[in-house]
Design brief:
511 residues; alpha+beta; Beta-Lactamase; Alpha-Beta Plaits; five-stranded mixed sheet; elongated
Length: 511
């Protein structure tokens, strides 16, 4: 029923227990004993002059309960109210009771009960108080005892004590309200001073920070900038306050980037990134920014704090390094292309455009290994121009070169998708033909022979007829090593030449 009204600062203090045990408890017990003695004397002697002492004791007990306000002293409060209402009820039995003071006492006790007890208890006391007032006013209950013979000074003394008691009560209430108000004001001033000190420290830290710093409200309006930020942007502080940071944006930063930035910081997240801004003089500056929310007492964003850093020099150096790397990469690519070209040229015969014999010796082991893994045959077709020395002697080396080029073109036209052609010797060519299991390459070889024979060379109004001899060797039918294959192809070619030329010979053990 009794709820404490002590301020939190007093409750949290270390002296609360000492005050209760050393001061309030003795006063409350003394007042309770005084009230009990007064009740007994009033009932026995029927001396209502003692009522003045009861008023004083009521005021003192009320003060103590206003200070204590907890369930520890609930019994004295109950006895106090029983004593008061008991005396008021007993006054109905005496003749000549003064109506107005008695009703005032009922109101006085009810006010004390309303302050001390719970609302439910106060309702019952209110009903009882109304009944008392009705009984006093209507005199439904006739008095039993005669009126006491009171001296003249009693009325004056009684009224004086009653008025002083009421003044004391209101004085206590006013003092308590003033004390609590002063305590609240003192606490508020302490909090305000602490906040002002924190603001001064924060402003000093931000002002002396080497990083450009600014603060905005939730709509992005700038509320504070430090000197470094003014130096970075080229604007004075009064030119920036109230403006939006969008005044610095450039076409180098997409709009979607700013949308993501605002979405992140409004959600309470910290944003870290880079911006491309424009100074007051129109120059471009690269910014490294860190933006976060300043939260209010409820933990919700109230402002946005941004720390920035001029990274223009670093970005320019990065761009220079990037351009240098790009140029270096372009040079590397060009060198690689030239190297590939040189390697390709080194692999190609400059007269015929076919691969050289050295390249044949480089890739022939790989081709044999590939054929072995695929379990496919590999045909070596060795082609030699018949009577080439006689043609050189008769028409000259230029005619011989034209002849070799013409034969090379015919060979190129006859190549399949995976075939390779080489200039094997001065007037000899070699074809590598994979995966042709039909007749060991005889049909292909005869086709090449006929194609060359059907295209005579025109040289200075003269027609030079050409024929070729061809020798064939097949992996793994005839040999499994590259040297053995080349040897067998050469022997087959030699048989074709000794047989008069213009023919194809497949190597066999019977040759």
């Amino acid at each position: 029923m009794i709820k404490s009204r002590l301020p939190d600062l007093i409750k949290a203090g270390e002296e609360e227990k000492h005050i209760k045990t050393q001061l309030l408890l003795p006063v409350t017990l003394f007042t309770f004993l005084f009230v009990l003695i007064s009740v007994i004397l009033t009932l026995l002697a029927r001396e209502f002059a003692i009522m003045a002492g009861l008023i004083v004791s009521a005021i003192m007990l009320f003060i103590c309960f206003e200070r204590l306000r907890n369930n520890t002293y609930l019994p004295p409060a109950v006895l106090f109210m029983i004593q008061g209402y008991g005396l008021l009820t007993a006054s109905l039995l005496f003749e000549g009771s003064s109506l107005l003071p008695t009703i005032l006492f009922v109101v006085f006790y009810f006010l004390i009960a309303g302050i001390i007890f719970s609302p439910k208890t106060s309702v019952w006391l209110f009903v009882y108080s109304i009944l008392l007032i009705v009984f006093m006013w209507t005199e439904i209950i006739p008095p039993v005892f005669p009126a006491p013979n009171l001296p003249d000074w009693y009325t004056s003394w009684f009224s004086l004590v009653f008025i002083l008691g009421l003044l004391g009560l209101f004085g206590v209430l006013a003092y308590r309200a003033l004390a609590q108000g002063l305590e609240i004001a003192r606490s508020t001033n302490q909090v305000r001073d602490q906040i002002e000190n924190d603001v001064i420290k924060f402003r000093s830290i931000v002002e002396q920070s080497p990083l450009p710093t600014f603060i905005t409200d939730l709509d992005g309006s700038i509320e504070y900038v430090n000197a470094q930020f003014c130096k970075l942007t080229g604007y004075a502080a009064d030119e920036l306050l109230g403006k939006n940071p969008r005044m610095f944006k450039t076409e180098f930063t997409p709009v979607e980037f700013y949308d993501y930035l605002w979405k992140a910081i409004r959600a309470g997240e910290q944003w870290v990134g880079e911006l491309v801004n424009r100074r007051k003089d129109g120059s471009i500056v690269y910014i490294g920014a860190r933006i976060s929310s300043l939260l209010d007492a409820g933990g919700k964003p109230a402002h946005f704090l941004a720390f920035e850093e001029d990274i223009t020099r670093r970005k320019l150096l990065e761009n220079e390094v990037k351009q240098a790397n790009q140029q270096m990469q372009a040079l590397k690519d060009e060198l690689a292309r030239l190297n590939d070209q040189l390697q390709e040229q080194s692999r190609l015969d400059h007269l015929t455009g076919l691969y050289t014999r050295s390249y044949l010796m480089e890739i022939l082991p790989r081709e044999i290994l590939r054929a072995a893994r695929a379990r496919n045959p590999l045909i070596l077709m060795l082609i030699d121009v018949d009577h080439f020395s006689a043609i050189n002697d008769r028409y000259g080396r230029s005619a011989g070169d034209d002849l070799l080029q013409a034969i090379a073109n015919v060979i190129k036209q006859s190549l399949g998708r995976y075939d390779l052609a080489f200039r094997y010797a001065n007037d000899a060519f070699l074809l590598l033909i994979p995966d042709d299991p039909k007749d060991s390459g005889l049909t292909r070889a005869d086709g090449v022979r006929q194609a060359i024979g059907n295209q005579p060379i025109q040289w200075k109004d003269q027609t030079i007829d050409l024929t070729v001899s061809i020798g064939l060797a097949v992996y793994p039918l005839h040999a499994e090593q590259e040297d053995d294959l080349l040897t067998r192809a050469e022997k087959a070619l030699e048989i074709s030449r000794k047989s008069g030329g213009n023919r194809v010979t497949l190597w066999s053990e019977n040759l």
